[in-house]
Amino acid sequence: MKRALMLAALLAAAAPVAATDVGVSVSVGQPGFYGRIDIGTFPQPALVYPQPVVIAPPAVGVPVPRPIYLHVPPGHAKDWRKHCARYNACGQPVYFVQDTWYQQVYVPRYQETRGPQPKGEHPGKGHGQGKGKGNH
């Protein structure tokens, strides 16, 4: 009897949490996306730092990978050593693009060339490490 009551109490406590847990997915080219972006033919991005940041340089004799561009929350760029693993970019040169450039230049042009993605569709899933938590 105690087991049944405990199980019922656990389920009752978990039910409201499950009901309010709403998943949100944000894709590259949308406001609120954090992760790797492809600069391609876009205008030169405004950068947070003028030089790429590398946390773990490759071993001697191993070629340095090409730099990547990331849009990350400001705290992630400031403490990159703590956050680079989330983006799978610790051993890679990284340029951080400024949020204003991403929002005002990249997003509109990306949507213009690829079309805005309707809510609920996730074609960009897997392109970044943004975790889909919306604006930060």
Instruction: Flag low-confidence runs.
Output: 2-24, 120-130, 132-136
* Spatial sequence of strands, sheet with the most strands: 1-2-3
- Distance between the terminal alpha carbons, to the nearest Å? 47 Å
Shape: globular
Taking all residues together, what is the mean pLDDT? 75
Q: What structural category arises from helix and sheet content? A: mainly alpha
How would a textbook summarize the main sheet?
Answer: 3 strands, mixed
Total tally of structural domains = 1
Q: How many beta-strand elements? A: 3
User: Portion of residues in helices?
Assistant: 25-40%
Backbone CA Rg: 20 Å
Short account of what is shown:
The protein has helices spanning 2-20, 74-78, 80-83, 99-114, and strands at 35-37, 68-71, 94-96. With 136 residues, it is mostly helical.
Can you walk through the features of this model?
This protein is mainly α. It has one domain (23-136). The chain has four helices and three strands; from the N terminus they run αββααβα. Strands 1-2-3 form a three-stranded mixed sheet, with no helix packed on it. The longest helix is centred in the N-terminal third of the chain and has 19 residues, at 2-20. Residues 2-24, 120-130 and 132-136 have low confidence and may be disordered.
Per-chain topology:
Blueprint: H1 2-20, E1 35-37, E2 68-71, H2 74-78, H3 80-83, E3 94-96, H4 99-114
Parallel strand pairs: 2-3
Antiparallel strand pairs: 1-2
Looking at this protein, list some descriptive labels:
mainly alpha; three-stranded mixed β-sheet; globular; disordered C terminus
